[in-house]
Amino acid sequence: MLLLLAVVIGVLYGSAVYLLLRRNIFKLILGLIFLGHATNLLLFVASGLTSGYPAFIRFITGESESMADPLPQALILTAIVIGLGVTAFALVLVYRFYSVTKTVDLDELSENE
Amino acid sequence: MNTGLFITLLLFLSFLAPFTRRYLRGAAGWIYAILPLTGFIYYLGLLPAINDGMVILESYRWIDVYGINFSFYIDGFSILFSLIVLGIGTFILIYAGKYMQTYPMQGRFMAYLILFMASMQGVVVSGNLITMFVFWELTSISSYMLIGYYHEKPEARMAALQALLITGFGGLALLGGFILLGIPYGTYELSAILANPDLIKQSPLYLPALILILIGAFTKSAQFPFHFWLPGAMAAPSPVSAFLHSATMVKAGVFLLARLSPVMGGTELWHVLLTLFGGFTMVAGAWLSITQTDLKRILAYTTVSALGTLVLLIGTGTQYAMNAAIIFLLVHALYKGTLFLMAGNIEKVSGTRDINMLGGLYKSMPVAAIIMTLALVSMAGIPPMLGFIGKELIYESAVFAPTAKYLILIAAFFTNTVLVFLSLRLSLDVFWGDRPQYGKRPYEPYFALLVGPFLLMLGGLLLGLFPKILAEPLTASAITSISPGHDAVGLKLWHGINTALLLSIMTLIAGIMAYKYKVAFIAYSGGVNVRYFAREFAKGFASGMDAFLLYTKNQTKRIQHGYHRYYLMTVFAVASVLVWVMIWRTDPIVLELNFADMPLNLVAVLVLIVAAALSAVVSHSRVIALIAMGVIGFGITIIFIAYSGVDLAITMVMVEVLMVILAVAVLYHLPKYQKYSETGDRMRDGLVAALVGSFMMVLVLQAGTSQLGVPISDFFKETSYTEAFGRNIVNVILVDYRALDTLGEITVIAIAALGIFSMIKLTKKVKS
Amino acid sequence: MESVILQIAARHMRPLLIILSLVVLYRGHNEPGGGFIGGLMLGAAYILYAMAFGVAKTQNRFVFSPLNLTALGLLIAVVSGIPALFAGDTFMTGEWITLFADTVAELKLGTPLIFDVGVYLAVAGMLMLVMFSIMEE
């Protein structure tokens, strides 16, 4: 399963990078979102895959051995919510950008300094 | 009291000055002066013990591991310097309180002046190289503020920037030198370094360390070819020139050389470099001062010359030379402080500083005239002032110099002749002779403006009259602390008839002759200057800076082209190449392909994610991009559920829904996709993307198959319920173990929300 | 957008969602849930309402501003770190008290719970702030 997940993460990163390199500003944001997803998944997968044992204390001896690693999960939880904040900010920025410049082409931005 | 407390108090006073100045009115200078005076008395009180061989060490922990501490090291040399800094500082504050009374922003001016005093005091008592560097840079910064005090004048700003750039550059070199010096010792404590002075000389680091430290010292002490910032700094108000640019700050470089001379000195290289630069600066400064007409610029060039003399003496390094250095240091501080302050007074009462526009001022200001003339007597090296003893020692050390004796002798003779000439000029041409028409009626300066110059002059006189009783105790331990193994030579006014005395008399005669034919002398000097020094250093520096700025601007334009995708592409391409090289060089990963742990339903989800990602990339439709975004989000949610990330899955579902809603809301306003890039560009971007994606894939496999050390999570698992009373470990980490991170995170999202709010609401207001 | 179905749904969903968010918040320490998830739910309750009835009406009806809610959340989160200072620990150390010890109703209360409430309010406020701003456009 690790192999398949690695492929998925690779594809996500690849598409994120490709989208980030576009001139259309909305695609740039899309790339940013993909990049966030890919990284969350990367953290999650890199800490090892455990199915069926969430990180809850249940008073069964020896349980902590097989339990999922809680720390990456806590990090990802934070990252998801921050990702929401940043994405929302970026989307509104795009919206303002367009309503001021009437273009979604980032190259025009650098040419019209 | 101790030194740490005293410097803290000074800094605190500097902080208070802007707030209190307006309430204290005219008394401000007098009141602020109490603190440095207290320090002066404190250090004077330490002198007897120091003379008995005591050294005071004081240390406050800072970065102990690296041998960096706020340490103070107080021996005879530090005390002498402290007395100069604080003694003159006291008078400067009194003087400045009155002098600056008609100017705006005096509180700020006083604050900078006191800040400077604190940092200078810090330099001279610091017992750790890094501490010294910190104070050293503080003097540069506060002096920048002070030189640029008349900031509405472009030349003041230029001079301030010039001084800051040069001393700042030197400071940087100095830091490098200090770090190199510290390496063999493993500490930056001065006491440790002084205790074992030969260690650095045996190290290969000696040469680079020496050169860097010399650059630092030479820039600060205005040695050729860095000398030009000092005359430029005369744009500062007179109290500043008197304090920083004659008595204290420019001496910091000399201080450093003297302080480190037991450690860095004694080698051929040290000797040659210091003698060469010091000697040349001494002569060049004297020469350039001849043609100046501005009182302060004349004094500035003689200061450059004096600094050269000090460097030369330290470089010579013999017993006589070290004695001469210390005595001359004191002499120069005393008379030059007086002269600068008097230059300020003259400008104040007559409205000009141009020596050709002055004359006959004795009738209007007799007291001032006598004070200034006596200080000039000291500068000319005529008994009974201390200046005479200083000059005798300089000649004496030149006579006994180990190398290049005659060259040094001629240079010293020339310099002192110019000093005699200038002394005559500054006194006779200013106070006597024809009285020109002044813009305003000159008058005797106020008491507060005279007390400082008078007492400094008096100091020079008394020390000269009673060298055994006064000057020797003051300087003896300073001399032994910078040149261990050498005793102080006895000081006296009358040495008997010897070479030095004969030289002195010849100097006097030569100086008087030069004054007699001054028109011709100045014209000749000016002619030589036009021929050989046609291009001013300051202008050369300015155009050099301009060229440098233009160069960097062009460079920046090339690197900072403004196209986001090329920035990103550079980052991605470089990262891929580096990571791929690393992957190439590590062992291959061994993977067991186990179809049993690949549930079909999950595989289907993964296929969906991949399909969605690829369609988002290739699609020309925005709706498909949005759908792909949703599919990926929910797909990841399912992966979270499948592998025990319950909280993650819940959060992800909610966030994903909101994100899609937001994207729809924004996309609704945006135009349809357009084709912006050519097929070739797409291929290139695709290649970069493929490189990044593939190395990330390999990294995941490596991370997933390796385990380094014990995971920190074991601690969380063990203590989550027993100590933090929570069974949901993820939540406990968020709100307890790493609560500070979470606090930072909700701050971030609050700021993002505020940003969105203001972007939408505020622009609306502008529209309406 | 006037949809009766949505309006009715939103009117009834709002209190349910609020209660649900509180439950999720409270049980978050031991079961799946917590401040983040609860906050998102609380935000969702009002966003749904605003979608059905409009932002202006929502804000008039329930008199609060999302901006203040966010600020309040942040404030509570910061304040929850302070008791630790009085106990001689570093800022943000969890401090606990036990009520009704050794009885059936034993209840452990601690500053992490207060902190979680801060997170809950801040997340909800931020969500509403963002969504309301965009929906008003």
Description:
The complex is a heterotrimer of chains A (113), B (768) and C (137). With 113 residues, chain A is mainly α. Chain A has a domain at 24-47 and 70-108. Chain A contains 5 helices and no strands. Chain A is elongated and about 60 Å long. The model of chain A has no long low-confidence stretch (mean pLDDT 84). Chain B has a two-stranded antiparallel sheet. In chain B, a hairpin with a 4-residue loop joins strand 1 (56-63) and strand 2 (68-74). Chain B is elongated, with a radius of gyration of 35 Å. Chain C contains 6 helices and 2 strands; from the N terminus they run αααααββα. In chain C, strands 1-2 form a two-stranded antiparallel ribbon. In chain C, helix 2 (35-53) packs parallel to helix 6 and helix 4 (66-79) packs antiparallel against helix 6. Chain C is elongated and about 55 Å long.
What's a quick, concise take on this entry?
By secondary structure, chain A is mostly helical.
- Report strand order across the widest sheet of chain C: 1-2
Order of strands side by side in the largest beta sheet of chain B? 1-2
The total beta strand count of chain B reads 2
Q: What low-confidence regions of chain C span 5 or more consecutive residues with pLDDT below 50? A: none
Structural class of chain B comes to mainly alpha
| Rounded mean pLDDT score of chain C | 84
- The total strand number of chain C stands at 2
Strand content of chain C: 5-15%
Sum up the structure in keywords.
heterotrimer; A: 113 residues; mainly alpha; 0% strand; B: 768 residues; 4 domains; 31 helices
